Amino acid sequence: MRLFRADPAAPHHTRIPSALTSFVDEVYATLSRLFAYVAVLALFVVLGNYLWQQLPDATAMVAPAAAGWSPAGRTAPAFAVSRLDLRDKTEIYEILRHPEGGRKDVFRWADATGAAVAELEIYRPGGEAMGPAVTEIAERLDPSGVRELEAAGIVDSKFGSVTLLRPARQDGDRACLGFLKQADAPDLRISGWTCQGASLPARRAAIVCMLNRLTLLAAGNDPRLAALFAHAELKRTDCVTSGAPALSADWVMGSENPRLRGAL
């Protein structure tokens, strides 16, 4: 009987389905990885779009804080109050700047307990909107609750006449007196308050002494500011020998002023 031998090419045909299967598996694996990459990329796009939409809200929340006054720690002092008789009082000098260009140099004096007893602010405005001066003085004089201020007369200082203000409802334990001086050239506002002195004339004298002791250290690039202080120094009087501040005999400026209300 004749024996038939197997065709030697048969094993090649059996290996073809195995190679095709491996190729298909590789394609599926590649497509799976591609879909995974696309999904991750789409997730990043969605997340980035969400964060981008939230950015205006975050900016709006930060903008009001950035638009206000902030301490200028590295700015050199421009003013000084020399030889002011505030014994046993701590002096604090703070400089505030506004993004629109305004600058405030603020002196504060506190007693041993930390309670504020006097304040002096030199405000050089920039492009920012200025609030009512009387309202700002009232807020600084009584941070816990704004009290209405009324006119308390006028005194003379080396800067000229200064408007005095006092709370309409006096606190028996804290009788204080505010003051305001507005200059036009340069645009400058000097204001503050003091609780020093046992009587109204004594507090008036303390205000005049504070202003007369205010000196300019550096005018920067403002020659008008330098001229203002140079002219004022010619009219400065000594706190010790001047006594009580000179007051006009006019009824508006007497020691017992009527309660004049309204904007000043």
Low-confidence stretches: 58-66, 241-264
- Strand order, sheet with most strands: 1-3-4-5-9-8-7-6
Write down the secondary-structure element order.
HEEEEEHEEEEHEHH
Structural class: alpha+beta
Quick one: biggest sheet? 8 strands, antiparallel
Mean pLDDT: 78
Number of helices: 5
Cα-based radius of gyration, to the nearest Å: 38 Å
- Described by the principal axes of the CA atoms, the overall outline is elongated
How far apart are the first and last residues' alpha carbons, in Å?
A: 136 Å
Transmembrane segments: 34-52
Keywords: Membrane, Transmembrane, Transmembrane helix
How would you portray this structure in words?
The chain is α+β, with helices and mostly antiparallel strands and 264 residues long. The chain has a domain at 71-234. Helices cover 36% and strands 24% of the residues. The strands form two sheets. An eight-stranded antiparallel β-sheet has the order 1-3-4-5-9-8-7-6. Strands 2-10 form a two-stranded antiparallel ribbon. The longest helix is centred in the N-terminal third of the chain and has 57 residues, at 10-66. The model is unreliable at 58-66 and 241-264 (pLDDT under 50).
What labels describe this entry?
36% helix; 24% strand; alpha+beta; two-stranded antiparallel ribbon; 264 residues; single chain; membrane; eight-stranded antiparallel beta sheet
Quick structural overview:
This protein has five helices and ten strands; from the N terminus they run αβββββαββββαβαα. The protein is of the alpha+beta class and 264 residues long.
